[in-house]
Task: structure prediction
Amino acid sequence: MAELTDAELRRELLALGYRPGPITATTRKVYVKKLGCLRAEVAAARRSGRAAPPSPGRSPAGPPQASPSRQRSGFTRDSEEEEGEEEEEEEEGGQAPASRWGTLVLLLIFLGILAVKMVGSGWLDRRDESFNLLPVDCDKSTDDFCQAKQKDMTRAVLHELYNYLSVQAGNFECGNPENLKSKCIWVSEAKDHVMNVTGSSPQKFEAALHWILNSNKDLGIWLKGRDLSGPVSSVEEVFCLESAHPQMGLGCRFRRAVITAITNLFLFFWSLITLWGILIFLRYRWRKMEEEEQAMYEMVKKIIAVVQDHYKEWERNLERYPYVGIFHVRDSLIPPQSRKKMKRVWERAVDFLASNESRIQTESHRVAGEDMLVWRWTQPSYLSDSEH
Result:
């Protein structure tokens, strides 16, 4: 039904016994809905066995006659539909003025914004003109406006100086394309750049340096003298300027971050390997010391056995002297090829016997015309008493 034209919709309604009013864009939906209801009633009547209203082609004589009740119901529906159409037309008539009023209000708002923009820009232009008309000797004035203007100019000089030094320091850190000798830029070079960019005087540049020197805040600019590591107390001592915050690009920062990370990892692994090597060396050293101490105790046992056997043989008159030379014992226990390797073990064994063994006494005797250190076995007193 939505594809029907206005004329076809009117013919269909007339064929079903309904006389429509004017068909417009607003009433079309109502008549389409009405046509659907009439077609549904006709279909229901056919199913119930009643005759359907004849079509215009079958009975050209005239319009069909409906029953009184049907006429009354049709009249009631017609009146209701007409009232609905009138209400819709009234609503449309009320909506149209409201939309016109809304359009008018939006137009007035747009014109007001446009006027404010035009007036505001003109006022700003006039204010700029008043700034341009400032007296040249504002430096000598002490009023608040001139003082604020001087501070603004000094801040502009500091801002440009900070940007210039940070860019130069960043270039120096990122490959040094300008072949700079240092990140510290000469004062004359920095002054020329700032004066060319800002159009300020040398006095403004010196005022900015005074501000940096007397400020307690970190402005990101370092003042350095000829001795780069020494402090600067006056502007006349300033030799070069350096940025504390180099301005570097994303690629340079990424490359430096990667290099720093690799360096830190290398130092970490190098430290780890060094500590591991120290640990391995200490463990080796401790094991060697334990082996050396064990070898020393074995040597002490052998020395005690040799000295004791020599004393027993002297008691049986098998030996000429009751003592035995220390080096003689060493030569009898350690073969010549191992004496250098066993030197420390032998010395520790001799010191252990001198300080911890009471049965062996160290003496000095003249043997074969030479003074020699010897060991003598001293029998415990209770054994001597029992033997006697």
